[in-house]
Amino acid sequence: MNFDGKVIKYGDNVDTDVIIPARYLNTIDKKELASHCMEDLDPTFVKRVVPGDIMVAGYNFGCGSSREHAPLVIKESAVSVVIAKSFARIFYRNAINIGLPIVECPEAVDEISEGDVLSCDLSAGIIINTTTGKQYKTEPFPAFINSIIEAGGLIEAIKQGKIK
Amino acid sequence: MGMTMTQKILARAAGLESVSAGQLILANLSLVLGNDITSPVAIREYNKLGGDVFNKEKIALVMDHFAPNKDIKAAEQCKMCREFAGAQDITNFYDVGEMGIEHALLPEKGLVKSGDVVIGADSHTCTYGALGAFSTGVGSTDMACGMATGKAWFKVPSAIKFVLKGELPEYVSGKDVILHIIGKIGVDGALYRSMEFTGEGMHSLSMDDRLCMANMAIEAGAKNGVFEVDEKTLEYMKNAGAAEPVIFTADEDAVYDETYEIDLSTLEPTVSFPHLPENTHEIGDCGDVKIDQVVIGSCTNGRFSDLEIAAKILEGKKVAKGVRAIIIPATQKIYLEAMEKGYLKTFIEAGAIVSTPTCGPCLGGHMGILAEGERAVATTNRNFVGRMGHVKSEVYLASPAVAAASAVMGKIADPREVMKK
Fold this sequence. Notes:
- The complex is a heterodimer of chains A (about 160) and B (about 425).
- Chain A has about 160 residues and is an alpha/beta fold.
- Chain A is built from eight helices and seven strands, in the order βαααβαβαβαβββαα.
- The longest helix of chain A is centred in the middle third of the chain and has 10 residues, at about 90-100.
- The radius of gyration of chain A is 15 Å and the shape is globular.
- Chain A starts with a strand and ends in a 5-residue tail after the last helix.
- In chain A, about 50% of the residues are buried.
- In chain B, about 30% of the residues lie in helices and about 20% in strands.
- Chain B has 14 helices and 18 strands.
- In chain B, helix 6 (about 175-185) links the parallel strand 8 (about 160-165) and strand 9 (about 195-200).
- The longest helix of chain B has 17 residues, at about 70-90.
- Chain B starts with a helix and ends with a helix.
């Protein structure tokens, strides 16, 4: 899993209410939902995000509600990977289940700035900040999680008989 | 090595002798829950698998968030759930007329009990830990897979132990205890972990207090919150008509990451200021915070005893001019009991309104949205930016007693002061 992209950076405790406000949850249309991605935190996000961008954030990213709409709108916005100091647990699960790559790397987050260009090899557990030239190690997923991601999400993993 | 309460429940559900923190397991589910916002996404995913649900009696679908339908799109989402429930012959489908806020409704209906493993596509599914169950919030894909297979994968959590002692003073409730704890450990203080509540002080807490506390475990980032089972728990489940419970207690040599001792008798009414539940202030340190709205309700504090204390405070008094007070009984049963006790009359005479059960304003859905610059004191569970409406509105989280007192005073107020008058 290799990703190259430009950084859009946020702080700690980015909650699911700002990722996708509940007032828009009266639809399950991904495009319509994604048109409000990050709206209450960063109204410029939708206009400036380009496919492949990498979202970087602090501690407890995705805290709050269990709405799967949150990782869905980030994925639908064509963000390639989310790097945070830590993730709220339901968001973490949901991201894996829908196939949005995420990685925890507190050390890298501290030294990454808005607009930096990163090159990530998640299988090898390496993040390279090509803007600063610095390199970081990340923890690879356990095999069980990898099998879900490789299948393309939990539904596919069940279809393929990987989870019975 | 000894196991925590949560670990024992998970071991049984996974068919294992023992489990330890960090282990990945596949557990059998006692119940899979969804609401009118998360179920439509789950149904879309479920339809990719197709076939019959694993057990039509072990799925609960509750139309509570944007129900009664707030707009056409919300109506379409409820319709999608209704049709799925009909096609799959889901036993526990709760629509307008029968529904209540899911986490008040399920324990009341006896659908959850000690020893259960429950997942729900709603973060406050952790509420049922008050009954000695393992219950946790998940997303819609987990819900879909749970409905299909009756199983879910978990990473076995480590735990933080909270040893409660003493008894709560008058006008201090379970809400104040959990806000105090979140203020102490922070919104990610229990991330990925269990919060286990024990100690002799626990027995003095009512079931409504315990449900409120377990409900907000997620606001400390916890995977679940769980209480030891005692006589009150058993009586509650018996009255609700729940099936035979399976009771676990933590091993004496269970390992906890941290242990906190909390003396309930020293706690004060506590308020969480915007925009995180960890921004707590004791009532004496709140200063002069004028408000526009009060909401008493939600899966956190819409239960009978919550309405009871609000009625006690509002009896014979008036909601301050310029304040909109919205009271939302969490279920039809609570609504009816509050009516029979005369609480609805008290509320209406005080100038408050009483709504049908709904999550409504808690998540900024409907029934009390805030305009720019407005402030609310709410008995709900989150005060994030824009949670109840405009991004520049503010939510102050508090107990029903503080909320009712604040409605009377038009600003954040101590219920003990209001009752002296």
